[in-house]
Amino acid sequence: MSAEIIDGFMIAKGYRERLALEVEKFVAEHGVRPVIRVLLVGDNPASLSYIKGKVKAAAEIGIDSEVLRYEPSITEAELLAEIERINQNPAIHGILVQLPLPKHIDEHKVGLAVDPMKDIDGFHPVNQGNSLAGNWCLESCTPKGVIALLDTIGCDLNGKKVVVIGRSNIVGKPVSVLALNRNATVTICHSRTQNLAEEARQADVLIVAIGQPKFVGADFVKPGAVVIDVGISRTAENKLVGDVDFDSVKEVAGWITPVPRGVGPMTIAMLMQNAFEAMTKQISEGAVSV
Known about the structure:
Domain Tetrahydrofolate dehydrogenase/cyclohydrolase catalytic: 6-121
Oligomer: single chain
GO molecular function: methenyltetrahydrofolate cyclohydrolase activity; methylenetetrahydrofolate dehydrogenase (NADP+) activity
Number of strands: 11
CATH class of the largest domain: Alpha Beta
Strand order of the largest sheet: 1-11-8-7-5-6
EC number: 1.5.1.5, 3.5.4.9
GO biological process, one term: tetrahydrofolate interconversion
Low-confidence stretches: none
Keywords: Amino-acid biosynthesis, Histidine biosynthesis, Hydrolase, Methionine biosynthesis, Multifunctional enzyme, NADP, One-carbon metabolism, Oxidoreductase, Purine biosynthesis
Radius of gyration: 19 Å
Protein backbone atom coordinates (compact mmCIF):
# COMPACT_ATOMS: atom_id res chain seq x y z
CA MET A 1 0.00 0.00 0.00
CA SER A 2 1.52 3.34 -1.05
CA ALA A 3 2.13 6.18 1.36
CA GLU A 4 -0.25 9.08 1.86
CA ILE A 5 1.07 12.09 -0.05
CA ILE A 6 1.59 15.26 2.01
CA ASP A 7 0.54 18.01 -0.40
CA GLY A 8 2.61 20.97 0.76
CA PHE A 9 1.18 23.17 -1.97
CA MET A 10 -2.40 22.84 -0.72
CA ILE A 11 -1.39 22.97 2.95
CA ALA A 12 0.61 26.17 2.32
CA LYS A 13 -2.38 27.63 0.44
CA GLY A 14 -4.52 27.04 3.50
CA TYR A 15 -1.94 28.72 5.76
CA ARG A 16 -1.73 31.74 3.44
CA GLU A 17 -5.52 32.09 3.29
CA ARG A 18 -5.84 31.97 7.08
CA LEU A 19 -2.99 34.43 7.48
CA ALA A 20 -4.63 36.83 5.00
CA LEU A 21 -7.76 36.88 7.16
CA GLU A 22 -5.65 37.43 10.28
CA VAL A 23 -3.78 40.33 8.63
CA GLU A 24 -6.97 42.05 7.48
CA LYS A 25 -8.52 41.65 10.93
CA PHE A 26 -5.42 43.21 12.49
CA VAL A 27 -5.39 46.08 10.00
CA ALA A 28 -9.08 46.77 10.68
CA GLU A 29 -8.53 46.79 14.45
CA HIS A 30 -5.16 48.54 14.68
CA GLY A 31 -4.56 50.32 11.37
CA VAL A 32 -1.13 48.74 10.90
CA ARG A 33 -0.16 46.41 8.08
CA PRO A 34 3.00 44.21 8.01
CA VAL A 35 5.76 45.83 5.95
CA ILE A 36 8.80 43.96 4.66
CA ARG A 37 11.77 44.84 2.48
CA VAL A 38 13.71 42.39 0.32
CA LEU A 39 17.31 43.37 -0.44
CA LEU A 40 18.62 42.04 -3.75
CA VAL A 41 22.20 42.61 -4.88
CA GLY A 42 22.74 41.98 -8.60
CA ASP A 43 20.46 40.05 -10.93
CA ASN A 44 20.99 36.34 -10.21
CA PRO A 45 18.20 34.56 -12.19
CA ALA A 46 17.47 32.06 -9.40
CA SER A 47 17.26 34.89 -6.85
CA LEU A 48 14.88 36.83 -9.09
CA SER A 49 12.66 33.76 -9.37
CA TYR A 50 12.60 33.20 -5.60
CA ILE A 51 11.83 36.85 -4.93
CA LYS A 52 8.99 36.85 -7.43
CA GLY A 53 7.29 34.05 -5.47
CA LYS A 54 7.77 35.86 -2.17
CA VAL A 55 6.43 39.17 -3.46
CA LYS A 56 3.40 37.41 -5.00
CA ALA A 57 2.64 35.63 -1.72
CA ALA A 58 2.97 38.87 0.24
CA ALA A 59 0.52 40.64 -2.08
CA GLU A 60 -2.03 37.83 -1.74
CA ILE A 61 -1.81 37.95 2.05
CA GLY A 62 -1.95 41.73 2.36
CA ILE A 63 1.67 42.27 3.40
CA ASP A 64 3.36 45.40 2.03
CA SER A 65 6.57 44.26 0.32
CA GLU A 66 9.14 46.07 -1.78
CA VAL A 67 12.31 44.79 -3.43
CA LEU A 68 15.29 47.09 -2.95
CA ARG A 69 17.75 46.38 -5.77
CA TYR A 70 21.45 47.19 -5.62
CA GLU A 71 24.22 46.98 -8.17
CA PRO A 72 26.64 44.05 -7.77
CA SER A 73 29.39 46.65 -7.25
CA ILE A 74 27.88 47.86 -3.96
CA THR A 75 30.46 47.69 -1.19
CA GLU A 76 29.99 45.68 1.97
CA ALA A 77 29.99 48.89 4.03
CA GLU A 78 27.30 50.42 1.82
CA LEU A 79 25.08 47.34 2.12
CA LEU A 80 25.54 47.25 5.89
CA ALA A 81 24.57 50.93 6.02
CA GLU A 82 21.40 50.16 4.05
CA ILE A 83 20.50 47.37 6.48
CA GLU A 84 21.05 49.66 9.46
CA ARG A 85 18.86 52.33 7.86
CA ILE A 86 16.02 49.78 7.61
CA ASN A 87 16.71 48.47 11.12
CA GLN A 88 16.13 51.98 12.45
CA ASN A 89 12.88 52.50 10.52
CA PRO A 90 9.96 51.50 12.79
CA ALA A 91 7.59 51.45 9.80
CA ILE A 92 9.43 48.42 8.35
CA HIS A 93 8.83 45.19 10.29
CA GLY A 94 10.80 42.61 8.35
CA ILE A 95 14.07 42.37 6.40
CA LEU A 96 15.09 39.64 4.00
CA VAL A 97 18.54 39.71 2.35
CA GLN A 98 18.38 37.47 -0.72
CA LEU A 99 21.36 35.13 -1.03
CA PRO A 100 23.80 34.58 -2.61
CA LEU A 101 25.68 37.85 -2.32
CA PRO A 102 28.70 38.86 -4.44
CA LYS A 103 31.96 37.31 -3.28
CA HIS A 104 33.34 40.59 -1.92
CA ILE A 105 30.51 40.77 0.65
CA ASP A 106 30.65 38.63 3.80
CA GLU A 107 27.25 36.90 4.06
CA HIS A 108 27.82 36.08 7.73
CA LYS A 109 28.53 39.72 8.58
CA VAL A 110 25.44 40.82 6.63
CA GLY A 111 23.28 38.28 8.44
CA LEU A 112 24.51 39.52 11.81
CA ALA A 113 23.68 43.12 10.82
CA VAL A 114 19.94 42.42 10.50
CA ASP A 115 17.96 43.27 13.63
CA PRO A 116 16.91 39.87 15.09
CA MET A 117 13.39 41.27 15.62
CA LYS A 118 13.17 41.95 11.85
CA ASP A 119 14.96 38.76 10.76
CA ILE A 120 11.99 37.08 9.06
CA ASP A 121 14.25 34.38 7.57
CA GLY A 122 15.03 33.26 11.13
CA PHE A 123 18.75 32.91 10.40
CA HIS A 124 20.18 35.30 13.01
CA PRO A 125 22.15 33.55 15.79
CA VAL A 126 20.00 35.36 18.38
CA ASN A 127 16.87 33.76 16.93
CA GLN A 128 18.51 30.36 16.59
CA GLY A 129 19.85 30.62 20.14
CA ASN A 130 16.40 31.52 21.49
CA SER A 131 14.95 28.55 19.61
CA LEU A 132 17.52 26.30 21.27
CA ALA A 133 16.59 27.75 24.66
CA GLY A 134 12.88 27.25 23.97
CA ASN A 135 12.16 31.00 23.99
CA TRP A 136 10.05 33.03 21.58
CA CYS A 137 11.88 33.79 18.34
CA LEU A 138 11.43 34.14 14.61
CA GLU A 139 12.03 30.52 13.64
CA SER A 140 13.85 29.47 10.48
CA CYS A 141 11.22 29.25 7.75
CA THR A 142 11.91 25.82 6.23
CA PRO A 143 12.18 24.01 9.59
CA LYS A 144 9.07 25.85 10.78
CA GLY A 145 7.32 24.69 7.60
CA VAL A 146 8.35 21.08 8.24
CA ILE A 147 6.79 21.20 11.71
CA ALA A 148 3.64 22.80 10.28
CA LEU A 149 3.32 19.95 7.78
CA LEU A 150 3.62 17.40 10.58
CA ASP A 151 1.01 19.27 12.62
CA THR A 152 -1.36 19.33 9.65
CA ILE A 153 -1.28 15.55 9.18
CA GLY A 154 -1.76 15.04 12.92
CA CYS A 155 1.75 13.76 13.60
CA ASP A 156 2.34 14.49 17.29
CA LEU A 157 6.12 14.46 17.87
CA ASN A 158 5.76 13.88 21.62
CA GLY A 159 7.84 10.78 22.36
CA LYS A 160 8.49 10.06 18.68
CA LYS A 161 11.88 9.05 17.29
CA VAL A 162 12.95 11.69 14.75
CA VAL A 163 16.00 11.17 12.54
CA VAL A 164 17.36 14.17 10.63
CA ILE A 165 19.81 13.50 7.80
CA GLY A 166 21.77 16.72 7.31
CA ARG A 167 23.31 19.20 9.75
CA SER A 168 23.17 22.56 7.96
CA ASN A 169 22.50 25.77 9.88
CA ILE A 170 19.57 26.44 7.53
CA VAL A 171 17.63 23.17 7.95
CA GLY A 172 19.27 20.25 9.72
CA LYS A 173 20.23 21.85 13.02
CA PRO A 174 17.21 24.15 13.49
CA VAL A 175 14.63 21.49 12.55
CA SER A 176 16.28 19.16 15.08
CA VAL A 177 15.82 21.82 17.77
CA LEU A 178 12.17 22.41 16.85
CA ALA A 179 11.51 18.66 17.02
CA LEU A 180 13.30 18.46 20.37
CA ASN A 181 11.14 21.34 21.62
CA ARG A 182 8.13 19.14 20.75
CA ASN A 183 9.52 16.38 23.02
CA ALA A 184 10.82 14.17 20.22
CA THR A 185 13.92 12.03 20.65
CA VAL A 186 16.19 13.37 17.92
CA THR A 187 19.15 11.84 16.11
CA ILE A 188 21.15 13.99 13.67
CA CYS A 189 22.94 12.04 10.95
CA HIS A 190 25.44 13.35 8.40
CA SER A 191 28.26 12.37 6.03
CA ARG A 192 30.35 10.86 8.83
CA THR A 193 27.55 8.82 10.40
CA GLN A 194 28.25 5.10 10.42
CA ASN A 195 25.48 2.67 9.43
CA LEU A 196 23.39 5.58 8.13
CA ALA A 197 20.58 3.48 6.68
CA GLU A 198 20.30 1.53 9.94
CA GLU A 199 20.05 4.77 11.93
CA ALA A 200 17.41 6.12 9.54
CA ARG A 201 15.31 2.95 9.86
CA GLN A 202 14.78 3.72 13.56
CA ALA A 203 12.80 6.85 12.71
CA ASP A 204 9.09 7.37 13.20
CA VAL A 205 9.73 10.64 11.35
CA LEU A 206 12.61 10.87 8.85
CA ILE A 207 13.63 14.38 7.71
CA VAL A 208 16.11 14.50 4.84
CA ALA A 209 18.06 17.64 3.90
CA ILE A 210 21.43 16.78 2.36
CA GLY A 211 21.27 18.04 -1.22
CA GLN A 212 22.00 14.66 -2.84
CA PRO A 213 19.36 13.60 -5.37
CA LYS A 214 17.50 10.38 -4.53
CA PHE A 215 20.06 9.48 -1.85
CA VAL A 216 17.54 7.92 0.54
CA GLY A 217 16.04 4.68 -0.71
CA ALA A 218 13.47 2.27 0.69
CA ASP A 219 16.15 0.56 2.81
CA PHE A 220 16.42 3.75 4.91
CA VAL A 221 12.76 3.77 5.92
CA LYS A 222 10.85 1.97 8.65
CA PRO A 223 7.46 0.75 7.38
CA GLY A 224 4.81 3.36 8.11
CA ALA A 225 7.27 6.16 8.88
CA VAL A 226 6.62 9.81 7.95
CA VAL A 227 9.23 10.95 5.41
CA ILE A 228 9.86 14.68 4.88
CA ASP A 229 12.07 15.45 1.87
CA VAL A 230 13.58 18.94 2.09
CA GLY A 231 16.00 18.49 -0.80
CA ILE A 232 15.48 19.78 -4.32
CA SER A 233 17.74 19.23 -7.32
CA ARG A 234 17.34 19.38 -11.08
CA THR A 235 18.28 16.31 -13.14
CA ALA A 236 19.97 16.30 -16.54
CA GLU A 237 16.46 15.85 -17.99
CA ASN A 238 15.44 19.11 -16.23
CA LYS A 239 13.21 17.28 -13.76
CA LEU A 240 12.96 18.39 -10.13
CA VAL A 241 13.75 15.63 -7.63
CA GLY A 242 14.36 15.47 -3.90
CA ASP A 243 16.92 13.78 -1.67
CA VAL A 244 14.52 10.82 -1.33
CA ASP A 245 13.92 8.24 -4.06
CA PHE A 246 10.19 8.96 -4.04
CA ASP A 247 9.02 6.00 -6.14
CA SER A 248 10.65 3.34 -3.97
CA VAL A 249 10.17 5.03 -0.59
CA LYS A 250 6.43 5.68 -1.08
CA GLU A 251 5.91 1.92 -1.10
CA VAL A 252 7.30 1.68 2.45
CA ALA A 253 6.47 4.96 4.18
CA GLY A 254 3.14 5.85 5.77
CA TRP A 255 3.34 9.51 4.70
CA ILE A 256 5.71 11.27 2.30
CA THR A 257 6.27 14.74 0.84
CA PRO A 258 6.71 14.96 -2.94
CA VAL A 259 9.17 17.19 -4.79
CA PRO A 260 7.94 19.63 -5.94
CA ARG A 261 4.74 20.51 -3.98
CA GLY A 262 6.20 19.40 -0.67
CA VAL A 263 8.25 21.49 1.73
CA GLY A 264 9.03 24.34 -0.71
CA PRO A 265 5.64 26.11 -0.63
CA MET A 266 5.64 25.92 3.17
CA THR A 267 8.89 27.90 3.37
CA ILE A 268 7.26 30.94 1.74
CA ALA A 269 4.10 30.54 3.84
CA MET A 270 6.20 30.54 7.03
CA LEU A 271 8.19 33.56 5.81
CA MET A 272 4.91 35.46 5.60
CA GLN A 273 3.87 34.13 9.02
CA ASN A 274 7.17 35.41 10.41
CA ALA A 275 6.52 38.85 8.89
CA PHE A 276 3.20 39.04 10.73
CA GLU A 277 4.71 37.74 13.98
CA ALA A 278 7.61 40.21 13.71
CA MET A 279 5.16 43.11 13.42
CA THR A 280 2.96 42.02 16.32
CA LYS A 281 6.02 41.39 18.53
CA GLN A 282 7.46 44.81 17.74
CA ILE A 283 4.11 46.41 18.58
CA SER A 284 3.80 44.49 21.85
CA GLU A 285 7.29 45.61 22.90
CA GLY A 286 6.63 49.24 22.01
CA ALA A 287 8.99 49.37 19.02
CA VAL A 288 6.01 50.27 16.80
CA SER A 289 3.16 52.48 17.89
CA VAL A 290 -0.46 51.80 16.87
